[in-house]
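Ticket #514: bound-state structure for 1-deoxynojirimycin.
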Amino acid sequence: MNNPKWLNDAVIYNIYPQSFYDTNGDGIGDLKGICEKLDYIQEMGFTAIWLNPIYESPFKDAGYDVADFYKVAPRYGTNEDFRILCEEAKKRDIKVIMDLVAGHTSTECEWFKKSALPQKNEYSNRYIWTDSVWNTGDGRKFISGWSDRDGCYMTNFFYCQPALNYGYKQVTAPWQLPMDHPDCMAMRQELLNIMDYWCDLGANGFRVDMASSLVKEDPDGEGIREIWSDLKTRFRAKHPDGVLIAEWSFPKDAIAAGFDIDFMIHFGTKAYTTLFRYEKGTNQSEAWIGNSYFRAEGKGDIQEFLDIYLEHYNEVKGKGYIAIPTGNHDMQRVSMGRDMTDLKIAYTFLLTMPGVPFVYYGDEIGMQYIKGLPSKEGGFNRTGARTPMQWNQGKNKGFSTGDELYLPVDASADAPTVAEQEADPNSLLNYVKKLIEVRKATPDLCADGEFEVVSAGYPFVYRRGNVLVIVNPKDEAVKVPAANAKECLIGVNAGLCGETVTISGKGAAVIILG
Ligand code: NOJ
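RESOLUTION: The complex was predicted; output attached.
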């Protein structure tokens, strides 16, 4: 295993910077705000933060449309503010992970503006262009008539996100460049320069956006594996503790390509979906959580998850980690359709699984997905999962002193806040804090600890070395035998009597065995 050692007991907090904490009253979160909240993050026990993109951007896709990879967006502060944030985080033993949007830029990026010129220049091949405006490409998404350049450019996501050119593995048209073309190699080098630049300012790694998207016409993935193993080798040579996290959602492939961690989220393997999201067989865009496993109705099937999970886990074990996050900025919040007890049970699972847990800001207090919000900055139905953090019952729930916010805070009367939950020993926040503490203090529960299924159903029972974990999302009492049980480290509606764990309805327990 050559992953950075610090990952073994890592618990990572995902911060959506525009919605975290605003220190200058402009209604948008900023880097100074994150800095001011580092004590909170440390107290919760998080060991690292991942920031969604903070680069200069026109924000047509929330910053995933980068205009300048070497500059912090003025609304968040300056590069110096970033350096200070890293310095302050380091004092608290917190690593800082940036988002690396490797596959595309904004059409506002200077590289693209030069690339769109009809005259040949250094950036002509930085993006993928066909050889005529009438040639609309190879079946992928291409945009025609953007500029006087006689060609169409390929987009990687929205129309305003032109695909950077790392080359084609199989070249079938004259305008497609092979991966080893000097201009594609120059792009690869540029990516490394970007990584070096931010690591020199204090960053400890990157979550790579659409990590599998770089190479085109690469049916067996040979090209993408080659790129990432090359980039990783060179990155690690300079930053031995630097971590690379993929947004791939197919851990077997991402870890084989050299990543330290890959997510299991709402696309790719569908593992996350079986746990928290959609009714079997329904369209992913529906916010429907019916038969997911973590529901009090108990209509889910954990075996569906395990079939996928174990296939990936057995393959990546010893080489890299799977991360099942509580949520992220691209999907409805996990609290949708679940009460605080349901969330405690779900988090007991998420924070006792192998690999590296991620908590999306606000999930630690059960923030809600706000339905029906107008799309903001390319959010569309993702907007409701991106609303400002709820710190206290003050103005704007303590997020900002401004009169106008870029997105409204949850105005509902029962909207949870950090201050109230800090004061309540039974709150979700205090439960999450305790779970993190238990995980970090128990080597068997950390990333590298063993994982073995004891029984799959309601309840779901598994062992992590000398620890037995029981999760019972279904609202029905159960008794679970626990030979050599010593102590219940943390639980919900759970009691230990001799060698039997009793769960009085929906609940969970983490038991240390003798
Ligand atoms: C994945 C990001 O998480 C998402 O927010 C973004 O819109 C796309 N990639 C495009 O960069």
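RESOLUTION NOTES: The domain at 5-102+184-445 is CATH 3.20.20.80 (TIM Barrel).
TICKET STATUS: resolved
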